[in-house]
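Honest question from a wet-lab person: if I give you the sequences of every part of a complex, can you actually get the arrangement of the whole thing, not just the pieces? Trying it with mine:
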Amino acid sequence: MAEKIKAPRMKIKRSVKQDEIFKVKVRFDHPSFTGLGMVDENEELFNRAVPSTFIRNMLVYYDDELVSRFRTSSAIADNPLFTFKLRAIKEAPVKVVFVDDQGERWEASKDVKFKS
Amino acid sequence: MKKTIAIAAVLVAALAATTSAYAAKVVEEIQIEGMVSPASPKALSAALEGQLAVKVLGYDFYGTANGWPIIKVEHDSGAVSRDQIEKVIDATKDPTGTPYRVHRGETKIHLALLEEETKADGVFAADAPDIPKITNPIAADAASHGRGEKLYVQYCSKCHGMTGNGAGPSAHGFSTNPRQLWTWHNADASADPYLYWFITNGRTDMPPWGVILSDNERWDLVNYVKTLEPPKN
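Yes, you can. This is the full assembly:
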């Protein structure tokens, strides 16, 4: 891959109430390509044309405990935006880990803080 | 002065003679990455034959073990080396501007999971749960097989393949490969609840078809899956 892929960006509320359900938004600029392409139009022949690249897994950790996992396939979009909800049960970091089909790994994390 | 030139000329001639003595016609097979547009094989042949004294014998798109197309090039080993051919391929772009690359390493597909992912698999995909022992209410007759076949073609064949070989057109992008379904050919009635459970609930990349298909449709599929067998040649 020519360009280096940057770490995902994550957004949560600056502070939340205890037991409040809050949104986590994660944006990851990652290309997505199945690796298939048309080789010969007349024969309608598809072949594996260039190496495939897509996000394979997204793991969500809350206070280092695995709370959710998103399994994705080559059908995922370029630069996807994930939004999901968590319940703020403690003040701890939320970490998101992305792994693509080449086995590369990226992560982002934000601290959950309670309103004082 | 004239003498030296003459000696040099003799030397060059001798050198040419020795190289041509060792040279032979060789056919090289080179795997290439990037053959996206239909015009690109022509572009690559033109570039190779224009820049080097080689002859492109043809391309192999089907019989390759790892999926990369192979180009067959005939050349004189004394005049052109494989390195030169690879350099030209690497420097050529197809009409859409996509560069070709000589395939040198392993194809990166279905790479092993990271330790972290395997751990997550353990947390979320617990082992097969207790499968309720229920009996198939639908008789495995021709009518049921017909209904099952229709559903199979519509919903299952994209991943499991038309023949059940587990290599349908959409099967390449998963972290786990779709199951080959011939295992259950002529299986007895004890396999029914197992198949029914997996069709209903899905597993890893397979979606839970219980939300889309009715009970009877799923039992028809169970009956049909048990008729799938390896193609006879």
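Two things worth pointing out. Chain B has two domains: 22-102, 126-225. The first helix of chain B runs from residue 2 to 22.
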